[in-house]
Amino acid sequence: MKWKPQYFIQLACSITLLGYAFMHFLFRGFNLWKIYPSSFVKLVCRAFDIPVQAIFYKGHPTNAYLAFLIISGSILLLSGIFTLFQHKLPKKFIPLAKVLLALSGLLILLHAFSAFVDSKLHYNVPLEFITRASLPFICIYLLSNAYHSNKNKLVTLWLPLIIGLTFFAHGLYALRFFPIPQSFLMMTTNILKTPRNITFNFLYLVGILDVLLLIGIFIKPVRKAFLYYAIIWGFLTALARLVAYYNPADMSTYILLWFPQFLIRAGHYLLPLALLFYWQQQKKELV
Prior knowledge:
Helix content: over 70%
Structural class: mainly alpha
Order of helices and strands: HHEEHHHHHHHHHHH
Strand order of the largest sheet: 1-2
Radius of gyration: 20 Å
Number of helices: 13
Shape: globular
Strand content: under 5%
Largest sheet: 2 strands, antiparallel
């Protein structure tokens, strides 16, 4: 089978959605991962005049909340399966696939907003989620007639912008516009085995590249170099969750907490890879 650029987008979306489904289903038996942080839940409860006890009782999720997680997890699971095979879907299933993708995109946006609230409204947090949240809606576009008649805007504007903003958001942490998450420092230190000051300097250098990528990905002479950086660094930062936190003595934490964290970042390297294939395709069409 000849791989087309859109297949990498579908694969990224499918892996991301299955990762989110994994998290939703396993929340019942593994409470270390808070899908929707308590500060966000409290905000929703205040907004809709719902007692917090209806969502969490003595720190544990209620049956109503667990039912929501099971339903939403099922939507994410089905959407992930449909997306993986969407280029082979019979026409009669396409409307259902679009609905599932739209609902999945909204669930990821809900997750992004909950993280935004929990961060005390740091503006870079929603940008961190832009690749994950965009993937379902890009896949809806791939299923539409508009994609087949005009995909130029997707390649020249939307994909570079989505990739650039995702890396830009992470770069702001490394450049200390916001406090660097302890997980960033721990992962880098655990993997590189470097002193704290060298870890800070390394992250600062990477942060400069992340911020420059937002501009460089639109500049033709250098855009391919920045895209290669995005593919490599995007994969390494996703993989870092599996490498840094590997602990044979506590495999349940490793599998239930960190494996989904690796999966939901698939778009960070597969979306740049898709864009690279689009550029190569365009080059062949011009020859």
